[in-house]
């Protein structure tokens, strides 16, 4: 039986035929069991390469939008109590519900309202990539607000009092004194959030976004080798997260005067 892997995977025929040859190659005489086909691993990695920029792009866009939203909401929590209550409710709702459900509500749920379909936002909301970015951004914003809240609580009161004595306005004190100190305190926890967001992008494959997991699922369905395919995909995720964790660690060392060996 011959399987057209190029058609099944909907990717350029040249690379898909490499996987097809790996799947249809005969084992040497006397070898039993599945064995280890290293050429297949290499072919799968080549197929997964187009999904890496998509995964990184989803992560970067979500962290950027979510980070900006978190900064705004963190500032809003310092205002009147009704605004603080709304931010708390937003954070509790998104942190307490599954991210997959939030993606489904945005991608499948909003389209049932005629007002949404007739709005200017519908050309964006009908696209799975933008729905995934929106869901991931709102989710990470809910967590980042709490990280920044913990960082704000760790800012010494004397620093704020000193800024007030020098004549700084409330906004200037928040922008130049409070927020930089809060970010430094929240950075270790936020580093974990970055890694979680990289892994969370795999949920975008549920709504047909062709990132790493989506491509891996298509290859596994076409080749009937899910173990090898998802091991390759997991290795790619692990490599990305390793580089990100090293980058966050270096940034922590740069922002911490004690670890940097200098005093402010």
Automatic annotation (TrEMBL):
Keywords: Cell inner membrane, Cell membrane, Membrane, Transmembrane, Transmembrane helix, Transport. GO terms for molecular function: transmembrane transporter activity. The keyword ATP-binding does not apply. Gene3D superfamilies: MetI-like. It is found in: Cell inner membrane; Cell membrane. Pfam families: BPD_transp_1. Residues 48-248 form the ABC transmembrane type-1 domain. It is a multi-pass membrane protein. The chain crosses the membrane at residues 48-73, 85-107. GO terms for biological process: amino acid transport. The keyword 4Fe-4S does not apply. GO terms for cellular component: ATP-binding cassette (ABC) transporter complex. Belongs to the binding-protein-dependent transport system permease family. HisMQ subfamily. This is ABC transporter permease subunit. The lineage of its organism: Bacteria, Pseudomonadati, Pseudomonadota, Alphaproteobacteria, Hyphomicrobiales.
């Amino acid at each position: 039986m011959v399987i057209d892997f190029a058609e099944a995977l909907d990717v350029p025929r040249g690379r898909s035929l490499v996987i097809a040859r790996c799947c249809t190659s005969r084992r040497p005489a006397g070898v039993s069991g599945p064995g280890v086909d290293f050429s297949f691993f290499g072919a799968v990695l080549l197929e997964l390469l187009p999904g890496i920029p998509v995964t990184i792009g989803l992560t970067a866009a979500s962290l950027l939008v979510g980070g900006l939203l978190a900064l705004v909401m963190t500032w809003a929590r310092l205002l009147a109590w009704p605004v603080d209550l709304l931010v708390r409710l937003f954070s509790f709702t998104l942190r307490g519900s599954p991210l997959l459900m939030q993606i489904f509500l945005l991608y499948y749920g909003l389209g049932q309202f005629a007002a949404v379909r007739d709005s200017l936002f519908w050309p964006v909301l009908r696209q799975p990539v933008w729905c995934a970015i929106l869901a991931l951004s709102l989710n990470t914003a809910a967590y980042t607000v709490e990280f920044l809240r913990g960082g704000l609580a760790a800012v010494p009161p004397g620093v704020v009092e000193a800024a007030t004595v020098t004549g700084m306005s409330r906004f200037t004190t928040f922008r130049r004194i409070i927020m930089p100190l809060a970010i430094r305190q929240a950075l270790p926890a936020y580093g974990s959030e970055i890694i979680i967001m990289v892994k969370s992008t795999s949920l975008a494959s549920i709504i047909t976004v062709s990132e790493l997991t989506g491509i891996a699922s298509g290859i596994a369905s076409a080749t009937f080798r899910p173990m090898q395919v998802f091991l390759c995909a997991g290795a790619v995720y692990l490599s990305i997260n390793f580089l990100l964790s090293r980058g966050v660690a270096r940034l922590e060392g740069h922002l911490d005067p004690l670890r940097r060996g200098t005093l402010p």
